[in-house]
Amino acid sequence: MAIDLNRMTLPEIFQHISDLPASKRADALRKIGSLIENVKILLHYTFHKNVVMSLPEGTPPYKPMDIPKNMGLNRLPAEMKRLQYFLPSARVNQIKRESMFIETLEALSPEEAKLLLMVKNKKLEYKGINRKLVEEVFPEILQGETN
């Protein structure tokens, strides 16, 4: 059965890849990543060792959006430009940075907010989507890492 990427949220896309047999994940991630740049951006923020958000550890106090489960608003792509403000290099004071992060989480569906928190914590909780897979499929997004 064909999937319609235009109708899927980013969490649904990652879940779809995770649900595939291990032997098919790399090809699926490669194809989807070539079509949807935001997938590669989230993988970069998650797995590049030098990209660390300047935010406190753990889950901040935020009020999840009250929508039916899996309604999938697909707002995360519109919020992707804000990711740069959560990095230490952004010229934003820490209180503003943290409040912007909370505002972003509150603007997303619960599934999208959970994905953004996974990215912040540098660990995607989708089976088989890990650093090894990213190194195999998109080694270019890990370039420039320092140990």
Q: Care to describe what's here?
A:
There is one protein chain. This protein is mostly helical. The protein has helices at 10-19, 22-35, 37-47, 76-79, 94-107, 110-120, 131-137. Helices cover 48% and strands 0% of the residues. Helix 2 (22-35) crosses helix 7 (131-137). The protein has one domain (8-142). It is built from seven helices and no strands.
Give the CA-based shape. globular
Helix content: 40-55%
**Count of discrete domains:** 1
Task: Tell me the distance between the termini.
Answer: 43 Å
| Structural class assignment | mainly alpha
Please report the number of helical segments. Answer: 7
Question: What's the main sheet like?
Answer: none
Poorly predicted ranges (pLDDT <50, ≥5 residues)?
A: none
Radius of gyration: 15 Å
The sequence of SSEs as H and E is HHHHHHH
Tell me, rounded to a whole number, the average pLDDT: 92
Question: Would you report the number of β strands?
Answer: 0
Estimate the strand proportion.
under 5%
Outline of this structure?
This protein has helices spanning 10-19, 22-35, 37-47, 76-79, 94-107, 110-120, 131-137.
